[in-house]
Write a structure and sequence with these properties.
single chain; alpha/beta; 8-stranded parallel barrel; 333 residues; globular; 9 strands; 11 helices; TIM Barrel
Length: 333
């Protein structure tokens, strides 16, 4: 069985906006986290594209990636992901090709097929365009072609982009992208940090149908894991109340700005909301290092993934940085 020591540890950053701070604070903290992750030895840090959400500041994903790349040295940085239906494939290839040219061997492109927003905002993003999620496979192949070496008589080239061979991942929370990643021979990351229900089925489908490619010779699976790690179980549960409030707000269409922790959630949510939040966080690891280590080992025994990519919505920025320090201590212990 795979051990934590030989499992990759990575970070998915959504640049959460605190209710008492402005967006500039969140963007600067995203860089602080990236620099912290680099020192700790994390393999990669990804940013997620979301729109029209007041609690998430990573909407201009490629721009923020450039800021982080310019102020780190070795950390792999990428998108987890770019929501491809919102963008023309050529533009994505040019953006990430530019980053790959400026920062060789450090940029990665994770692609998702959902809009990452509500229907009204989706229409604003796609104004004048006819693309739909059904075109996702063709768009992925188009991007792969832009990153490959130019072919004779190729009518459209990505400049920069062509020949940069930017690593492309497919992301998913259902079975669609698992099948596509298997057919194209691409690494696959499952969004179990917010949609864990189909994780086991998607991993099995991906592995059973994987076709080796120029990109990958065997399946590679990453799974999202929400975390709140603190010195004690009690402290972690207290800090996790910010996470519970944030997800409750998402599910009830309220402000998603990160709220301070509270002593108890009793009286703050209904029984139905509590159950919905618990389902959302089915893969979450909340507790002391001892508790979380056992939880991660259990996940590894069940799913045998190659990589954990961790999210964290702790309110206090120092405690948030500590969360990732403690996770790396767990990996090395």
């Amino acid at each position: 069985m795979r051990s934590l020591q030989n499992t990759q540890f990575s970070i998915l950053e959504l640049a959460p906006v605190r209710e008492d701070k402005d967006v500039a604070f969140s963007l600067k903290h995203a860089l602080e986290l990236a620099q912290h992750a680099e020192k700790l030895g994390y393999d990669r840090l990804w940013l997620a594209e979301h729109h029209n959400m007041d609690g998430i500041a990573s909407s201009a994903t490629a721009v923020l990636l450039g800021y982080i790349l310019a102020n780190t040295q070795t950390l792999k940085v990428g998108s987890g992901g770019i929501m491809l239906p919102n963008h023309a494939p050529l533009v994505v290839a040019e953006q990430f090709g530019t980053l790959a040219t400026l920062y060789p061997q450090r940029i990665e492109l994770g692609l998702g097929r959902a809009p990452g927003t509500d229907q009204v905002t989706m229409r604003a993003l796609r104004r004048g365009r006819q693309e739909t999620e059904d075109q996702f496979p063709n768009d992925v192949v188009e991007i792969l072609q832009y990153f490959d070496n130019a072919q004779p008589n190729q009518r459209i080239t990505a400049t920069p982009g062509q020949g940069t061979h930017v690593p492309v991942w497919l992301l998913g929370s259902s079975l669609f992208s698992a099948q596509l990643a298997a057919r194209l021979g691409l690494p696959y990351s499952f969004a179990s940090h917010f949609a864990p229900r189909m994780l086991a089925q998607a991993i099995e489908l991906y592995r059973d149908n994987f076709q080796a490619s120029q990109y990958l010779d065997k399946p590679y699976v990453s799974m999202g894991v929400p975390t709140v790690v603190a010195q004690t179980d009690a402290e972690a549960e207290y800090l996790a109340s910010s996470v519970y409030q944030r997800i409750q707000s998402l599910l009830t269409a309220r402000s998603m700005k990160l709220k301070a922790p509270v002593a108890t959630m009793e009286g703050r949510w209904t029984a139905a909301e509590k159950m919905a939040v618990q389902n959302f966080l089915a893969m979450a690891q909340i507790g002391s290092p001892t508790t979380v280590k056992q939880g991660l080992e259990n996940l590894l025994a069940k799913y045998d993934v190659d990589e954990f990519i961790f999210t964290c919505d702790i309110y206090d920025t120092e405690k948030r940085l500590e969360n990732f320090s403690l996770l790396m201590d767990i990996k090395k212990s």
